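Sample intake — 3-isopropylmalate dehydratase large subunit
Collected from: Alkanindiges illinoisensis
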Amino acid sequence: MAGKTLYDKLWDDHLVKQRDDGSCLIYIDRQLLHEVTSPQAFEGLQLAGRKPWRLDANIATPDHNVPTDKAERSEGIAGIKDDTSRIQVKTLDENCKAFDIVEFDINDVRQGIVHVVGPEQGLTLPGMTVVCGDSHTATHGAFGCLAHGIGTSEVEHVLATQCLIQKKSKNMLIRVDGVLGAGVTPKDVVLAIIAKIGTAGGTGYAIEFGGQVFRDMSIEGRMTVCNMAIEAGARVGMVAVDDKTIAYVKDKPHAPKAEQWDQAVDYWSTLHSDDDAVFDAVVEIDGASIEPQVSWGTSPEMVIPVTQPVPTLAQAKDEVQRNDWTRAYQYMGLTAGQALSDIPLDRVFIGSCTNSRIEDLRAAAEVIKGRKVASSIKQAMVVPGSGLVKQQAEAEGLDKVFVEAGFQWREPGCSMCLAMNADKLQPGEHCASTSNRNFEGRQGNGGRTHLVSPAMAAAAALAGHFVDVRHF
Ligand SMILES: CC(C)[C@H](C(=O)O)[C@@H](O)C(=O)O
Ligand code: SF4
């Protein structure tokens, strides 16, 4: 019998029951809750007179709707001007109180984007099944977890039973070997992968990211890559556990201690694909060939190396792509063949669950140190992923680097990643953004998003347009 993939192992270890039609019941170790996708789930529980099955498997924090402006934030929930947003955040507080679920609320220093908070607290640990009513839950796969987003009715199901009905996906290996060039970051790797396989490339698969590039990559970098598995069509993205994973989780507040730690490490050390494991699909990319990437269009697959011009219709692979590109040129206000450096940038956003961890902020600060944001940029903002990331960055003096350069230093939350709070683009504005989605209207009605790494966003803010950070 062939060996098992990491995904097979995680699946088998959590399988409660399999039916003849292939549908399975799997056990869920951790559920993260935020204000947008939990209200109906709690309401369902309440109507049915149920209680959560395992209270301490759940953890909640508001992130999408919270203001990132210091003055607004200092007022707590009252500082949220939009009624719907305020009600959602308040409802999360009330539900967590009523059901006795631990919440890092808007005033708690541990509050932040769920996908930053879970790993930071050691609530995400290797080998766990992790779910959240949020498509970017794959982020946690960086720890060798089986992690994916679920819908609101499933949130209720997990609260009530700690189980989930699932069908097993196929196995895909994306192997990136070699060594990344200087100035090429995990974000560039994942954007290059999506450019290659497309936004449907991973549909139906659980993706394992393997090869030297991921072995060499920091845990934070692995989170950035796994975060965007969903943008490649896969609900699950993961990386095998290694010494770095174990060192990263050690001493986190919720990590196991003493004897339990040793037992956990023994188990975690088995969480990698066997040498003779068989994948249903394998994609190979040469790491050394990856350049800093910039998205030019309205889908995360419309991505090019910074050295290339916006593609022309002659480069499209078929009629469907020609139509998509034609519409994208129009929405983005670009012409085919145009140099990326000619795109006038209005705003720069460094943040989101893709790139708001300490390492991301350090990478941006490194580029910015001692320089100034270009006068043509209307707003450049840095939004740490959690209160603790903010604290850490301040302890390292990064906030000063940003503020002296002309960046705004904000309070933690999803912010300008999506237009669910006060941080938005105006129609027609171009934004260099470290987030993960560049759909039409994603950052505000008519807004034009260009996905980049923190280093590329920082360089763009200083230059006023896209530049190759390797020569900046
Ligand atoms: C609001 C939430 C359900 C959504 C998601 O599922 O990902 C959001 O986080 C996003 O990034 O689009
Ligand atoms: S930061 Fe963006 S992608 Fe991440 S959870 Fe928030 S809205 Fe979704």
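Post-analysis note: The mean pLDDT is 98.
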